[in-house]
Amino acid sequence: MENEEMLAAIKEMFAEERKITDAKIEATQKDTIQQVKALLENGVEKQIRLLAEGHAQILARLPDAEEQGEIKSRVTTLEHVAADHTRQLDELRKAQ
Fold it and tell me: Which domain of life is it from (predicted)?
């Protein structure tokens, strides 16, 4: 065999090995992708769903915007009344 024939034979061997290696890599990639998808479906997505459900429950307990406005108004009124009562009590203490 001459050098060119040897090089051609080696090139052909490497081409065959490359095909085999590429096929193995592709199979491994597909398997890895399947594993990642399964992990996402079973783990992460489930946890996100549970978190969203908990968030929805919290939001359901919170007062809506109209109720919050009413609560703020009542709290402001109570703060003014408490301040007025404190002032009146201070005046009564001074009068004694």
Answer: Bacteria
